[in-house]
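Posted in: Protein Modeling Q&A

I'm a second-year student putting together a small comparison for a lab meeting, and my supervisor asked me to include a predicted structure for Ferritin-like metal-binding protein YciE. I've never done this before, so apologies if this is the wrong subforum. The sequence is pasted below exactly as I got it from our records. If anyone can share the structure token output, I'd also love a short note on what stands out.
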Amino acid sequence: MLLIVGDPRMETTVDHIDDLEELFHHKLAQQYYVEQELVETLDEMAINATNDQMSEGFADHRDETRTQVQRLEEVFAELDRPAERRKTPILDALEEERHALEDAIDDDDLLDMAYMNAGMMTERIEMTAYEGLSMMATQIGYDDEISKPLESNYDEEKSAYRELDAMATASDMKSLWDRLTP
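Accepted answer (user: helix_wrangler)
Welcome! Here is the predicted structure, written out as tokens:
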């Protein structure tokens, strides 16, 4: 048995993994957990963000994320395995940080910046997760019924990241940056 060690509240026990298909399933279950958790997180951030463009972006991505959850359920069905959630310490740590920042920041604009950064970090992590899943699916020899949903989710995560990145440099954010920087 492999034990991922870290914060004791986030320890995750992993059954013995001795082949690529089991590693794929483990990572797929972690990504399923991530996507399901992010539906609620994105909803909260859409409500709490005071920048209208950011709020709308989080709401739109929440809806995309619901579709991503469905795609992962399709992948589990194609593998003839029940959809399974496995906690992943990286998401739990990001959520803990988000809650801590929400408690520590009183300025709405500054909180929006924290949300933007959290969103960008999360998207990069998700893109990497889907890249890994796609790489493993290819090596295992899975067909398009497995790889296409993963690629679609990857493409949406990449698009969400690009939108956040573009928002960070958009003209309507200039006054915010000017106010927040000396």
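A couple of things worth pointing out for your meeting: The radius of gyration is 18 Å. Confidence is low (pLDDT under 50) at residues 1-11.
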